[in-house]
Inverse folding.
């Protein structure tokens, strides 16, 4: 999803951090859903906070907003054991020059180092990919940190997709952003798809699986973010939802231990259950790119409780959102 970006100097990072302790609008809402079938013997093994589409920048209220959000995460009892960051952590480097990208990445990594008190796992979003829009970024494509290399180095990732196990659950983190001209489409390349097949095959059938992607594999909310009334047809661009969703869904159908898929990107909250897999699009910490609600979804984050029997519970939580600045 796109948002206009202005150029900024490195010095303004400190200015943005300096506003982080200012007061925020005191409103908080909660929407909850129960996913698990009643099982008095089940045991919660992991509590996960899913923060996606943060879009930090030194200007405006994004730093203050992120810190307010983190405060609600850290103060929750019991506190989450893991934070899944779902991508688009910076306002944008896709169409920015190296100077602007460095400002944004330096700011983000400083915030992670100084303010994240819970272990973090990262997913890469389209706005985290440096310079693919060559006409606007001025990149040639041969820069050492071009594309996903910069953010992968910051996250110490060998590949932009990976898996890990924790508390008896398998986590599969996908890379949704596929190059398409000066833009992108939501899809897996063939190498990553074969890797995904192998990961699912290698996972014991009794081990539940959570899949994290930036761009939704399946969602409903993208239907309401276009101008279908004008076109007379339902149209969802390939940059909004995985264009290869059919083969991914068919693959998941062969592995009944795939339980939950988390995503962001659309900045709207929804949940779709298809073939007994729950797909949750978890809104955005930034809401309408740090200007309040986006359509009917308030700025917020996802809370997921995972259980030893493969069940889960999920909530979408808002937080004290700072007063929007600008238009």
């Amino acid at each position: 999803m796109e948002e206009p970006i202005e150029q900024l100097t490195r010095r303004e990072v400190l200015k943005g951090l300096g506003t982080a302790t200012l007061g925020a609008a005191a409103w908080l809402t909660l929407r909850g859903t129960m996913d698990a079938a009643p099982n008095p013997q089940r045991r919660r093994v992991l509590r996960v906070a899913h923060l996606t589409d943060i879009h930090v920048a030194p200007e405006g209220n994004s730093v203050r907003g992120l810190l307010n959000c983190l405060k609600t995460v850290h103060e929750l009892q019991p506190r989450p054991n893991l934070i899944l960051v779902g991508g688009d952590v910076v306002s944008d480097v896709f169409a920015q020059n190296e100077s602007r990208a460095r400002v944004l990445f330096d700011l983000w990594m400083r915030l992670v180092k100084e303010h994240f008190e819970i272990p973090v796992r990262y997913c890469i979003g389209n706005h985290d990919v440096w310079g693919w829009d060559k006409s606007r970024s001025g990149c040639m494509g041969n820069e050492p940190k071009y594309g996903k290399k910069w953010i992968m180095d910051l996250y110490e990732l060998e590949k932009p997709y990976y898996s890990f196990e924790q508390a008896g659950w398998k986590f599969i983190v996908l890379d949704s952003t596929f190059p398409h001209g000066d833009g992108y489409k939501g899809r897996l390349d063939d190498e990553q798809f074969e890797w995904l097949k192998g990961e699912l095959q290698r996972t014991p059938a009794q081990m539940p699986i959570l899949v994290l992607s930036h761009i939704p594999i399946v969602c409903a909310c993208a239907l309401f973010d276009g101008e279908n009334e004008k076109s007379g047809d339902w149209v969802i661009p390939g940059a909004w939802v995985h264009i290869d969703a059919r083969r991914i869904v068919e693959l998941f159908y062969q592995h009944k231990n795939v339980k939950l898929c988390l995503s962001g990107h659309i900045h709207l909250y929804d949940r779709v259950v298809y073939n007994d897999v729950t797909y949750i699009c978890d809104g955005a910490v930034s809401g309408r790119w740090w200007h309040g609600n986006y359509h009917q979804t308030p700025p917020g984050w996802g809370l997921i409780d995972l259980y030893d029997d493969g069940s889960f519970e999920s909530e979408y939580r808002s937080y004290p959102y700072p007063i929007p600045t600008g238009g």
The chain has one domain: 44-318.
